[in-house]
Design goal:
- The complex is a heterodimer of chains A (118) and B (317).
- Chain A is an alpha+beta fold and 118 residues long.
- Chain A is built from one helix and eight strands, in the order H-E-E-E-E-E-E-E-E.
- Chain A has one domain: Immunoglobulin-like (Sandwich), CATH 2.60.40.
- Chain B is an all-alpha fold and 317 residues long.
- Chain B has one domain.
- Chain B has 14 helices and no strands.
- The longest helix of chain B has 38 residues.
- The radius of gyration of chain B is 21 Å and the shape is globular.
- Classes of the chains: A alpha+beta (118), B mainly alpha (317).
Chain lengths: 118, 317
């Protein structure tokens, strides 16, 4: 009976173990806001997450509609916040791709767009 | 590239579960010695000697398993982060980056230092100074796990509350569940020594008091952790994290039922004058302790999985 219970429980734990691969820091909000249109070109993109981040393993890139990088490079990470400066940009749609490692050693990634122009 | 594809799979879950269990057993054994065995065995040198030999083996073996599984945890995480094989992860600098540039790496180095200190203390345990220092190192070894998990990444002032609750939760779990192993050894030895039941009664009474304090701490800190990580009854029911937490609570409740039987039914029978009744009670306590250890090891497996899942509160708004 005990062996049967064990046999029943181990697959349950394995299912939990493999069912949801861990990613814990979710994007809370961003500036420019996700999907929004801003009139003036922003100097930087800032993202706020639900959990504290590891600076060495958290990155963000910003590309224009042609796929060219418009960010200046290394992201600045402090607590739950990550920011990257932008080179002077014109109007159009910009793609933000982020990948972060939370302090509890789980990664998550995502992307969003914002538009610049009237 | 999926940096963490392998980190949260079966090997990582198994490694974490083994590490939690081994660390809890070495800590629980030292807490048991300090709070239960040493006071009870003070005037029982004949019984104390074989028990101390057995618990020394338990402490050394569980410390060795904790160190090996702790190193495996660091290596698995590094391999997953760098998407490299074991050899590449070590030679490419990925291991150095994880150790030096992440909180997990810093905490792992501190915990390795605590494990080495604990080994020294176990080697020189005849002195009271080393025994107490060893107890402190063991508590530090289990409590510092809090800085590697969900509690470490909870932001703002809530993070301090979460860390505090997790430290208490881990320490209380180690004191109770880890302490069951030396208790089983002592009760098992008692079955072969009729007429020594007074010692077992003293030990069980002392462990019962430790268990009540541990369970109260577990419940209080568990409520705080659940409030932060689950947040609502709805999230408890509909998320994988919440459902696994309910399984953990069910196993915890079963352990409490056995502990209640021990305290309310079997322990009083140890005090009765009949030798047969005493031996029956001792056998019952021994059996129940082994069952509780089984439940406890299962709980560590559940905790090994829980740490790799999305906290329910993050999934349900």
């Amino acid at each position: 009976m005990r062996r049967l219970s064990l046999i029943a429980v181990i697959p349950l734990l394995l299912w939990f173990a493999t069912g949801e691969v861990g990613a814990h820091a979710f994007l809370d909000h961003a500036e420019p806001r996700v999907g929004n249109k801003v009139a003036a070109p922003p100097r930087e993109v800032t993202l706020w997450f639900t959990q504290k981040l590891e600076p060495a393993f958290s990155t963000v890139t910003v590309t224009n509609a042609a796929g060219e990088r418009v960010d200046t490079g290394k992201a600045r990470v402090s607590g739950t916040q990550m920011a990257v400066s932008l080179r002077p940009v014109g109007g159009g749609t910009y793609h933000v791709n982020w990948r972060v490692l939370s302090v509890d050693t789980h990664t998550t990634n995502g992307n969003f767009t914002f538009q610049v122009g009237q | 590239m999926d940096w963490f594809g392998a980190a949260d799979g079966g090997p990582m879950v198994a490694t974490r579960a083994i590490h939690f269990a081994a660390t809890a057993i070495v800590t629980g054994t030292l807490v048991f010695q300090a709070v239960v065995a040493n006071p009870a065995l003070r005037s029982q040198e004949a019984a104390a000697k074989p028990f101390r030999t057995q618990t020394r083996y338990v402490a050394w073996i569980s410390l060795a398993v904790a160190v090996i599984s702790g190193l495996a945890w660091v290596l698995l995480l590094t391999m997953s982060l760098s998407d490299e094989s074991l050899g590449e992860a070590i030679t490419s600098g990925a291991l150095r980056d994880v150790l030096n540039l992440t909180q997990f790496g810093s905490v792992s180095q501190i915990r390795l230092a605590l494990a080495i200190l604990l080994a020294f203390c176990l080697a020189f345990e005849r002195s009271a100074f080393w025994r107490w220092l060893g107890l402190g190192a063991a508590v530090g070894l289990i409590a510092s796990i809090a800085w590697t998990g969900h509690a470490a990444s909870t932001p703002h002032k809530l993070g301090y509350l979460h860390l505090g609750a997790d430290v208490l939760h881990l320490t209380a779990a180690a004191a109770w569940i880890g302490g069951l192993v030396p208790l089983a050894l002592l009760l098992g030895a008692g079955k072969h020594h009729q007429g020594r039941v007074g010692l077992e009664l003293d030990v069980v009474e002392r462990f019962s008091a430790l268990g009540i304090a541990s369970v109260a701490t577990l419940i209080l800190s568990g409520i705080i952790n659940a409030w932060i990580l689950v947040g609502s009854f709805h999230a408890l029911v509909i998320t994988g994290y919440g459902q696994l937490l309910m399984l953990k609570l069910a196993v915890f409740a079963a352990m409490l039922a056995f502990a209640a039987i021990n305290r309310l039914s079997l322990m009083p029978r140890l005090a009765l004058p009949s030798a047969d009744t005493q031996q029956d009670a001792l056998r019952g306590l021994s059996r129940n302790t082994l069952i509780e250890i089984g439940f406890g090891l299962f709980l560590f497996a559940v905790v090994g999985v829980l740490g790799t899942l999305h906290p329910a509160a993050h999934l349900v708004q």
